[in-house]
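Regression check, flavin-adenine dinucleotide case 1096:
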Amino acid sequence: MTVLRYSRAADLAEAVSAGQEARLLGGGTNLIDLMRKGVERPQHLLDVSRLPAGIDETEDGGLLIGGALSNAALAADPRIRAHYPMLSRAVLAGASAQIRNMATVAGNLMQRTRCPYFADVAGASCNRRVPGSGCDAQGGVSRYTAVLGTSKSCIAAHPSDMAVALVALDAVVCLEGPAGPRRLAITDFHLLPGDSPEKETALAPGEVISGVVLPPSSLAARSAYRKVRDRASYAFALVSVAAGLRLEAGRIAEARIALGGVGTVPWRAARAEALLIGAEPTPELFARAADAELAEAETQPATAFKPELARRTLRAVLTTLAEDAA
Amino acid sequence: MSTLQNVLIGSVRTAVGWLPEGWLPGGRPDPLIGRHGAVGRQSALSDAPEKVTGAARFAADVAVDGLCHAALVHAPITRGRITRLDTTAAEAAPGVVAVVTHRNMPRVDSPALIGLSNPSAVGNSDLPILQDDRVHYNGQVVAAVVAETQAQADHAATLLDIGYEVTKAPTDFATAKASARTIPTLLYEPTQRAEGDAEADLSTSRYAVDAIYTTPWQTHNAIELHALTVIWEGDRLTVHDATQMIAPTATALAKMFGLKRENVRVLSPFVGGGFGGKGFWDHHVIAVAAARLAGRPLRLRLTREGVYRVVGGRSQTEQRVALGADAEGRFTALIHTGTSVMPPYSCSPEAFTLGTRAMYRSGSYLYSQRHADMAVVPNTFMRAPGEAVGTFAVESAVDELAHEMGIDPIELRLRNLPEVHPVTGVRFSQHALDQAYRDGAARFGWAERPATPGERRDGEWRIGMGCASGSFPYVRLPGASVRITLHRDGTAAVACSAQDMGMGTATVQTQHAADRLGLTPETVRFVSGDSDLPPAPAAGGSGQTASIAGAVMAASAKLVGELIRLAGNASPLAGLRAEDLHFDRAGLVAREDPARHESFAAILARANREEVSVTASGAVPMEMFRYAMHSTSAIFAEVRVSDVTGEVRVTRMLGSFDCGTILNPRTAASQFRGGMIMGLGLALTEETLYDERTGRIMNPSLADYHVPAHLDVPPIDVIWTGIPDPRTPLGARGIGEIGTTGVAAAIANAVFNATGKRVRDLPLTLDKVL
Ligand SMILES: Cc1cc2nc3c(=O)[nH]c(=O)nc-3n(C[C@H](O)[C@H](O)[C@H](O)COP(=O)(O)OP(=O)(O)OC[C@H]3O[C@@H](n4cnc5c(N)ncnc54)[C@H](O)[C@@H]3O)c2cc1C
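Current build output:
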C-alpha cells in the first residue's frame, strides 16, 4: 500500500477538479481493504467524506440524499423509514454497525465485488481485476457469485444491499463532472460485465457522485426488503429481494422488484414486473413472475441452488406484500 | 506414533491393571473433594480488570526500543520449486532492514512433531522452514521482510520477485482418499479396534442405519492474531509469544538455535484465545532467525490471512457410521470408519472414532480410520479434535436409528450406555451421562418435542428439537511442576509456566491452592506465563487444570515436610509426622488434635526465615491407565427452519455436563458456552474453502469465513451433575473441549425434527435444507 498523497475536498468543485487524477475516498471501508490486498493501488487519495451529506426534500416530493451521507444515518432517517422502508431495511441488513457508520452512500454504490478471485492478487486470475487474465471463479469457490447477467469473462455478483433497494425505487444518481452535472437512472449506472468486466459503472473519468434522488413513490411506503444468508447477520446476501406492490381494485397497478446476490449488477426484475402489472395477485401469478425472472439464470455447481432460492424468496415477499395491500 | 508406542501403552495398561488399588495415585480420593472452600465458588477472572482496562500487554503490545517489524511472503503455488528469487527491489525499499529467504536463513533443523513419545516436541509440521527452494503447500512462507515500520515491511514484501516451477500435488479429497493410509496409532489408541463381525451382524440386525457423514475444513480464528516480539541479547533470547505451550516452545527454540535452555525465555502472560491453534508454527522460527539477522528486536504478527496460510486447522472428514440394533434397541453392531486428511509432514490424526469407542456398548464393533495425503497447510488440533466431528457422525446416526425404530433418541442412548469401557473393559472412574440426560431433558422441556418431524411451526418457520451426546477424555499430563513459596507475611505464591488463554487457569488454581494450603484466595498469588518458572506442559487436551492441580498436590505434600523441619522442637507441632498433619487456618494442624496448630508466619518467624519454597512435579498419571475417564454431556438444541429459504436459526441450546467437580461455576460456564458456540459454528457456517483445483484457501478472512455472529448465538443454558470423580485431583475432569462435542449433531437432529430432512454434510447451510 503506497499512497503518495492524501487530501480532502472541501466542496464538490474541488472534488471534481482534484478528482481527475485522484481516487475518491468515502468511508474507506471497501477501498482501504482493497488497497491492503493490493487490488487497488491509488497514488493519491481525495477524501470526499465531507461533501454534502444531508437529506433534502425535492420540489416534487422526493428526497435528495447527499453522496457523503453515512449508511447508518441514511437507515435511521425518519423520512426514509416512513416513506421508503425497504431502503432503510436494506441498509441495515448490510455489513455491521461499525461499517455502516463509516460507509457513505456514494461509496456503497461504488463498492466492488466480493468474489474471492477478484481479491486474490497473488493467487488468482480475474478479468475484472486484470482485463484478459481469465476468470478463476468459474469452476472454483463460487457460492457468492451471480447467476444473472453473467458473461464468459465474469460471474462476479454485485454485493450491495442498498443499491438493490435503490434500483427497485427507481433512484437517480446525481453526478458532477468536468463537463458539469448530469443525472442517470440507477439502472443505467451499474454495467453488465460483458467482455469488459473491469468497466463497472457509467461514471466518467473525473466524475463524482454528489447524491442520489429518490423520486416520490406511492408504493414505497409499503415496500419490503428480505435478505437471505447462512449467517444471521454480517454476511452478504445469497439472495435478496426488494419489492413494493400497489393494488387497485384487486389488481396490481404498480410493481417494483429488484434482486440482490444473484446479479452481476443490482438486478431490476423487469420481466417479473411486466407479468404482474394489471394482473390479479395469486400464488400462480407470483410463481410465473419468479420463473420468468430466473429463466435465464446460469449457475455454477456452487450456485445451483440460487435460482430456486430466489424464486421462493420472491414469491414469499410478493405474497406478504399482496396480503398487506389487500 | 508407532507400533512400538502401542505396545508400550498396552503393556503399561496391563501392568497397571495388576496393581492393588491403594498403589495408585488417586487410589485414595483427594481429601479436598466435597470440602466447601474457595473451590466451587463463583469467582471472576483474576486478570479481568487488566484486560478490560487495556492494561494487559499481549505479545504484540510489548514495547521495546529499536523494534523492527516483519512481514511474511507466502507461496501462491501449491507445490514446486522457487526458480527465480530477486530481492533487489525489496531490499532497496524505504526502511527495509533485511530480507530473509532460504538463501540467508540460518540453518535450523525442523522441530520434532508433537507426539506422545516426547512431551517437549512442539512441531505441527516437520517440513524445513526456509531451508531450501521447495514449496510443499499453498501459502507456505517463502520469505520475510524486516523493516523499520510494519507498513514498510508490508510494502516491501510485495516487491519480491519470485518465480516458481509448479509440480503436481494432491489437492482434491476424492482422489487423495483413494490412496489414504492407515497409521498404527491414534494418539493413545490403536487405530483399528474390532470385536466380532460387525458387517455380518449389521446385515442381520432387526434395525439398521448405515450412512456417510462429512465435515469441512476449519481454520483457527482466535481473536488475537499470532504474534511474537523477539529480543536477542548476545546468546540470550527472550520471546514474548502468544502461545499455549510456553515451556516446550522455549525448549524447542533452544534446541533449534543451539542455545542453553536457561538462556531462552518465553513469556506469554496473556493469550487471546488458543483452541489448539496457538502452538508452534513456522513464524516462530522465522521471527527468531530474522531478529538475529537484523540484529534488532523484532515483532512479527501474522495477518488474519497469514493465520489461514501458516496455521492449520481441523481436517475435513468423511465418516461412515453404521448401527444395527435388536428389537429392544440394543446395539448389535457398531461401525465407525472413515478418512481425514493428514499430510506426511503433519501430526494431527483427527481421531474422530475415539469418542465413539467409549460411548456405546455393542455386540460387535469395528473402528478404523484412514489418512489422506493432501497438499495443505499442516492440519492440527482444534478444540475437541476428533470428538467434535466424530460425535456429529455417530450422534446423527443414533438419531436416525431412533427415528427408524420409533423410540425416543434419549431412551435409545440410555439403553446402550456402557457399564465399563466397551473396548478396553476398564471401569469408568465416574460416569453419570444418564443423569445429565434426565436433568437436561427436564430443564429443556424435551417432553414437548413431537416425535414426528415437521409437526411444529410458526408461520413459515418450522420448529424442531434435537439432542446428542458429547464426550471427551480426561487427561492429566505428566511433567507438570509447580513451586510453592510461603512468605512470612502469611501470603503464598504458586508458580509454574502454565498458560492462561483466557480460560481462568490462574483464577481457578488460586482457589485451589488456597484450599490446599488452608489459606484464603486473597492471600494466594498464582504466577504463570513465563518459561523461567517451573515447567508446565502445553495447555491441551483439556488437561491443564488437572495437570497443575496434581503438581500443586505434590508440592504441598513436600511443603509439609519442609515446614516440620523448620518448625523444630519449640513448635506445638513438634513430634508430629507429615501424615499426622494437614493444612488449615494459614498453617499446619494436627489431624487428631485441631488445637495443635501453628501458622506459617509463626513457623517462619521462629526459624528466622523470610520464606520457604518447594518445587515438585505431579505424580505419574496412572489413573488414566487404570480407569476409563471421560467427561460427557447431553446437548439440546431448538431450531427454526424457514420453509421458504431453508435458513436455520438456533433459538436456544442447553448443555448438561458430567465433568466431575466444577471448580468455578463462572469460568466453567464460560468454557461450556464458548465450546458450544464453536460447535454451533461447526454445525452451521464455518468452512475453510479450498479451491480443489489449486489447493489454495479462498476465504482467508473473517468476512468470508463465517464464525457465528452475535445474532447466531441464542441463549445457552448450562447445567452440570457436579458429581466428583474420585480418581482425579479435586474430583475434576477437563471441561475445555467437551462443550464443542455433540453440538453439531444436536442441531442437525433438531433440523430433522423440524423438517424431516436429514443433512449429513456440514456445515448445514440453507441449500442443503431447501
Ligand atoms: C466485512 C464487510 C461486510 C460487509 N457487508 C456488507 C453487506 O452485507 N451488504 C452490503 O451492501 N455491503 C456490505 N459491505 C460493504 C459496505 O457496504 C461498503 O464497504 C461501503 O458501503 C463502501 O462505502 P465507503 O464510503 O466506505 O466507500 P469507500 O471504501 O470509501 O469507497 C468505495 C469506492 O467508492 C468510490 N467513491 C467513494 N465516494 C465516491 C463519490 N462520491 N463518487 C464516486 N466514487 C466514490 C471510491 O473511490 C471507491 O472506489 C461490507 C463491508 C465489509 C468490509
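Comparison notes: The radius of gyration of chain A is 19 Å. The pocket of flavin-adenine dinucleotide is lined by residues A 23-31, 33, 48, 67, 71, 94-95, 99, 102-104, 106-108, 110-111, 159-162, 208-209, 236; B 703 (CB under 6 Å). No diff flagged against the previous build.
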